[in-house]
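Input record (one chain):
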Amino acid sequence: MLDTEPDLSAFSQIDFTNGAVAAVSGGSDSTALLLLLKAHLDRSAPTAMLLAVTIDHGLRPDSAAEARAVARLCAERGIAHRTLAWSGAKPSTGLPAAAREARYRLLAEAAQAQGIGLIVTGHTADDQAETVLMRQARERAEMAGRGLAGMATATLYDWRIWIARPLLGARRAALRAFLRREHVGWVEDPTNTDAHFERPRIRAVLGEGEGGQRFAEAISLARRAAGGREQLGRHAAALIADFASLPANGLIRLDPGFAKAEDAPAAVYALRVLLATAGGASLLPDQARSEALFQQMRAGPLCATLSRTAVDTRRTGIFLRRELRDLPLAARVAAAGLWDGRRRITQDLDAEPITLGNSAGALLIAPLGAAAAARRPIAESAAPPSLVRAALATEPALWHDGECVGFAGDGAGAEAVAVSPAVAPFARFLPCFDLALAQAVAGLIGAPSLPALPSSGHGAG
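The corresponding structure, as predicted from the sequence alone:
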């Protein structure tokens, strides 16, 4: 039963062959996750590596002691454990989001260091209900089709490591009852009851008299919204496959027939994702503005901008490209990272330092620019040359001592740097609700293939 025994069916749907990193804070949910996962692996995959990782955010005086308590529990149970600290200055605003980003970055680094492609977290049905109610309370129109799906059972982080949530069908009360039977304690994080934060306020509402009914309604809503989101994504993916092409790097072409698509909701959704991808935006553009833009496309020719993307309708098609303004400034090439949200940069750290002429120095990355783009030969394509050059001007180029040495792999010294397209709105977090849509866009722009899902089932918990 949901309230008395944890629902553990999701564990058997996950492939743990290559091991797993369990995110363990010391709270009840993650502690129960650790013990249940250890028992499952002992039964079904005894050779799989299990690494428990505790992230010390450094935000509370007791955090280091709590991490040591988790380490002791892991030692008692024969589980490998690491504590990783979120170091550096903390932001004065947006702290929960920043902590979340740091947490997943550190977890991913720990997983990658061990050759593991799976992170497992202890999010519960209670967390799911809270998430849905929080998003519902914000009354944002775009949430109706996307955010109300809540958390996915699997989310791809940084286009390389899956995050699985096998306890989305389990209640927190059931997990705590399990820990009591095992005579295992847990940490109570005071921020979980701090009314300054939104989630604790929603949690308090769910604990009131009508909380049970509100919980059930939220979980039901999440399931319906997840199904609708997946279906809409599949329809949008089909439209992209039918109408979208890439005549040049950074330039997306939509066949004029796209504006006449009968499935307008799917077309608007596809347009929003393509706009964000072309512009390098992590968030989709506003639903209402996107609908208005789509109606303008249907009405006739237009030139417009939305989500850092220039939209140009020509006789030969509808073209989307990155705007020429607010592009990144020249900077040293990092070992890895997202550039302008649109390109994933990786550098071969073992390569010899570049030498041009008689000087060796830092390799910089910056937009090619209009002047350099005008000098480059343009291959014949289905797009007007002026648009191809405008798109080319926004592409990342490699510079040394004030001289453009070309794009990755096509000029002297550039072979040590690789550049691949990124599906901007899904580059950091890709819920499996959006898998079909992300795959369609990745195929369109030439982004790397997605790693296989760690589970045969996906969707809402």
